[in-house]
């Protein structure tokens, strides 16, 4: 969106999520790559911390997508960033390779939403919210070879090109993995909720702005791509 039409609240929330993500990844690098024994990082609190970050990014991305019908270009750019991250990790850090990480997912979600707009725009927002919530629950365990409580056919686990959809093959590993299912439904949930509530929000809330934080939120993609090499170098110097 043009800067004058942006919702400052979204940029500010995304900026806080970005800072949280950078701190989390610094901790991850210190523990998983440089061998620091920070036992709290394996606790439930660390899992909650990680979950809060990616849920915020996916939800906000869906919400922002409802404000524009022209997400194809942006989706292709974000997907390109995801493919770059995959290539770099495969070449330089194969033990921490990223196959279909959060950027790849978000890029695909934007592209899918672009082509589904004629259908999505006809769905009542409340119905869309319920649909998204139900199918998120039904597909949440798809990467564990389950559709809700039912096991998937074992033959699917031998197909290696289905992992972007959430159906993984034996021995599959990715340090960052966000398949289309179930996460596309969280993306759609954010989109429908924004359509339902944004017009009802007071302008004061929509314009809530902490300038340095919202600046980060407006440049999330660039910072995301650049931050890991910088964190790796910082950890190398410290540890």
Task: List the main descriptive attributes of the protein structure presented here.
239 residues; mainly alpha; two-stranded antiparallel sheet; 9 helices; 2 strands; globular
Can you give the helix content as a percent range? 55-70%
Mean pLDDT: 92
CA(first)-CA(last) distance: 42 Å
- Strand fraction equals under 5%
Report the biggest beta sheet as strand number plus sense, adding barrel if it closes.
2 strands, antiparallel
- Compute the number of helices: 9
State the total count of DSSP E strands.
Answer: 2
Spatial extent as radius of gyration: 19 Å
Helix-strand makeup class: mainly alpha
- Tally the structural domains: 1
Order of helices and strands: HHHHHEEHHHH
Low-confidence stretches: none
Strand order, largest beta sheet:
1-2
Gross morphology is globular
Could you explain how this protein is built, in words?
- This protein is mostly helical and 239 residues long.
- It has one domain (3-238).
- 64% of the residues lie in helices and 2% in strands.
- The protein has helices spanning 8-33, 44-65, 72-92, 102-120, 125-139, 180-197, 203-206, 211-218, 220-238, and strands at 146-147, 150-151.
- It has a two-stranded antiparallel sheet.
- A hairpin with a 2-residue loop joins strand 1 and strand 2.
- It is globular, with a radius of gyration of 19 Å.
- It starts with 7 loop residues before the first helix and ends with a helix.
- The mean pLDDT is 92.
């Amino acid at each position: 969106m043009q800067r004058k039409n942006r919702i400052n609240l979204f940029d500010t929330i995304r900026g806080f999520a970005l800072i949280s993500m950078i701190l989390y990844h610094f901790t991850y690098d210190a523990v998983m790559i440089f061998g620091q024994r920070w036992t709290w990082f394996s606790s439930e609190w660390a899992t909650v911390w990680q979950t809060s970050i990616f849920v915020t990014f996916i939800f906000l991305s869906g919400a922002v997508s409802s404000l524009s019908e022209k997400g194809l270009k942006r989706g292709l750019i974000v997907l390109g960033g995801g493919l770059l991250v995959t290539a770099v990790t495969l070449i330089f850090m194969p033990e921490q390779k990223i196959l279909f990480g959060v950027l790849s997912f978000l890029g695909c979600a934007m592209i899918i939403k672009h082509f589904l707009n004629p259908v999505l725009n006809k769905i009542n927002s409340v119905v869309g919210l319920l649909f998204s919530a139900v199918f998120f629950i039904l597909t949440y365990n798809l990467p564990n070879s389950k559709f809700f409580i039912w096991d998937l056919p074992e033959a699917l686990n031998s197909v290696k090109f289905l992992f972007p959809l959430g159906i993984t093959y034996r021995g599959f590993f990715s340090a960052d993995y966000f398949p289309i299912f179930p996460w596309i439904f969280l993306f759609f949930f954010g989109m429908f909720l924004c359509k339902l509530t944004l017009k009802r929000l007071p302008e004061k809330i929509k314009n809530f702005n902490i300038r340095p934080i919202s600046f980060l939120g407006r440049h999330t993609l660039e910072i995301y791509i650049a931050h890991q090499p910088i964190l790796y170098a910082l950890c190398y110097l410290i540890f």
